[in-house]
């Protein structure tokens, strides 16, 4: 029997269900899927998982980790109050707690994030010998196929204190979205995991955001980056890297729909093979029904109406003012086409070898979501200086994708007002001029 665990909240049931169905479609061996959920999990979604398992003559079991590990979850929430608000919710920490509630007779386990499609026989991963390693994972550096990507990731990780002091080497840092775990060894080191949680929890939050972070992935790397089996990246094909390097072959892979602050891994563009393979499996799940089409229509109707309202706001705010633009180097060309940028209009952009993450990743927030620290440097300083000089004379269109919330807060702190001094330029992205349409919110509402 192959044992596979998936962590999810109710919101991500449709994604976890798609992951489970894709695995059953490609695997003839007996599989038990262990669904780790929180209190938000609804009975109707429980029944849909059972229906899929019965359809493929496989098994599924359910664990309310929020109840089974009530004390442990309470401690994590106490140590890391930001987990209830940020990208890394409490669900992400469930994999750290599997030693507490998983049946002792389970000696080996595959862990999968919910944003996964298993487009291969999972038995292939299961049969890999771990030898003396606690688990197997895909190291991030296996994706460093050019100097730009290597420099960006290496430099970002090197800023972390645990890399600077040698505890974790950047080239050994792993992604924990797919893990092959020796459960007997993992149970033996549970005290080390809890000690690490307590250590990170003792660091003041404003320091933790900048130097440590507190995600499950960082905690596991802190503990085990020197003691894990390096899995082939085919078992954790992270879409950010795959798309960056033009690898659109979906065959014989476990596809991980990881995004970045600049974009989400999954959308409804059917020209993309990774989106298409997800929907191939999703359409076979009980979550695909007449409501799917209705929700897609609602999404585009809402966006169409919002666009008309934004155009009215722009026509008002532009009276007597000039335009200026702020974006990344890679977006300058498409932006010029979208906005019909004139020669004399100001464009502030990152250098060719820079990323906005270099300037905005280290922004630190308090428990109320307000910025308490950030560094003004490089292209960010150029933007702020120009906005001060031309306040009341120019409107700055910011095309920064997922970084907009952080930049919005910084600009507000500096006395600038949205729809007066600046606007989210991503609202006007146009596929006809080479700009991608952001449809991930539509995927969430399917």
CATH superfamily of the largest domain: Spore Coat Polysaccharide Biosynthesis Protein SpsA, Chain A
The dominant shape is: globular
Query: Into which percent range does the helicity of residues fall?
Result: 40-55%
Count of distinct strands: 16
Low-confidence stretches: none
Radius of gyration: 23 Å
**Main sheet summary:** 7 strands, mixed
CATH architecture label of the largest domain: Alpha-Beta Complex
Into which percentage range does the β-strand content fall? 15-25%
- Count of DSSP H/I helices: 20
Assembly form of the protein: single chain
- Distance between the ends: 33 Å
Which strand order spans the largest sheet, edge to edge or round the barrel? 3-2-1-4-7-6-8
CATH class of the largest domain: Alpha Beta
The name of the CATH topology of the largest domain is: Spore Coat Polysaccharide Biosynthesis Protein SpsA, Chain A
Structural class: alpha/beta
């Amino acid at each position: 029997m192959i044992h596979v665990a998936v962590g999810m909240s109710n919101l991500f049931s449709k994604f976890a269900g798609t992951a489970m169905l894709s695995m059953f479609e490609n695997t003839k061996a007996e599989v038990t899927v262990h669904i780790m959920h929180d209190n938000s999990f609804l009975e109707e979604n429980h029944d849909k998982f059972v229906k899929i398992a019965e359809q493929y003559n496989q098994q599924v079991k359910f664990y309310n980790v929020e109840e089974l590990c009530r004390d442990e979850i309470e401690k994590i929430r106490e140590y890391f109050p930001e987990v209830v608000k940020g990208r890394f919710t409490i669900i992400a920490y469930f994999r750290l707690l599997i030693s507490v509630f998983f049946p002792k007779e389970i000696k080996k386990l595959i862990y999968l994030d919910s944003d996964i499609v298993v487009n291969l026989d999972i038995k292939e991963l299961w049969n890999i010998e771990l030898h003396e390693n606690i688990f197997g994972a895909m190291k991030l550096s296996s994706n460093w196929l050019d100097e730009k990507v290597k420099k960006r990731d290496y430099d970002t990780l090197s800023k972390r204190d645990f890399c600077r002091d040698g505890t974790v080497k950047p080239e050994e840092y792993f992604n924990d979205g797919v893990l092959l775990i020796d459960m007997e060894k993992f149970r033996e080191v549970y005290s080390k995991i809890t000690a690490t949680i307590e250590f990170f929890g003792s660091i003041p939050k404003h320091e933790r955001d900048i130097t440590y972070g507190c995600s499950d992935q960082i905690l596991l790397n802190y503990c085990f980056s020197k003691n894990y089996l390096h899995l082939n990246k085919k078992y954790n094909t992270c879409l950010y890297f795959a798309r960056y390097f033009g690898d659109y072959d979906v065959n014989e892979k476990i596809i991980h729909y990881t995004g970045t602050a600049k974009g989400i891994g999954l959308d409804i563009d059917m020209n993309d093979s990774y989106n298409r393979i997800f929907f191939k499996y999703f359409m076979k799940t009980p979550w695909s029904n007449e409501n799917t089409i209705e929700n897609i229509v609602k999404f585009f109707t809402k966006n169409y109406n919002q666009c008309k309202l934004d155009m009215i706001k722009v026509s008002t705010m532009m009276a007597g003012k000039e335009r200026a633009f702020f974006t990344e180097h890679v977006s300058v060309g498409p932006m010029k086409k979208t906005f019909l940028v004139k020669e004399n209009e100001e464009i502030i952009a990152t250098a060719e070898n820079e990323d906005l993450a270099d300037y905005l990743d280290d922004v630190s927030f308090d428990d109320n979501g307000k910025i308490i620290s950030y560094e003004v440097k490089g292209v960010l300083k150029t933007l702020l200086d120009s906005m001060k000089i031309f306040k009341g004379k120019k409107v700055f269109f910011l095309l920064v994708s997922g970084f907009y919330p952080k930049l919005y807060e910084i600009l507000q702190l500096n006395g600038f007002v949205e729809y007066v001094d600046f606007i989210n330029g991503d609202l006007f992205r146009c596929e006809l001029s080479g700009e991608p349409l952001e449809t991930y919110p539509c995927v969430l509402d399917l």
